[in-house]
Amino acid sequence: MDELPGALGTSASLALRFGQTVFSSASLLFMCLDVQFYSFTSFCYLVTVMGLVIPWSMTLIVVDAYSVFIRCLRRQPRILLVIIVGDLVLSFLLLAAASSTASVTDLLLDADGYCRAKPCSRYQLSAAMAFLSWFLSLASSLFNLWLLPSL
Fold it and tell me: What is the phi/psi pair of residue 98, to 5°?
């Protein structure tokens, strides 16, 4: 069987997971730079989801790095199914968090004088990083889903 780029245990998967971790960490950093983020539920939701995504991605970075640099791991359908389901669930949570953060930030910007430029620009950057993290998470999940029937 040919290697599917982006599937678990490949260098492309390692790059996807690394990008996902970097964008998730950046989103969390931009959100937490302002101490007022806890005033809005959608911002707290984004921080909570990033708290789930970052350890998940870092764990899979370790698995991919071990598989790429040390030795190739045998793919087992049950483990791959758990990873696919985890990726899909987290990607939908990420999409919801990014969308809610972007919409609340847009509402805050439209309200005259409610949001200063600096915190709102940080919230916008946080939402943009969350969308990028969601895109990479969904891509990784779909690559692994594509690999599942061949096992």
Answer: -65, -40
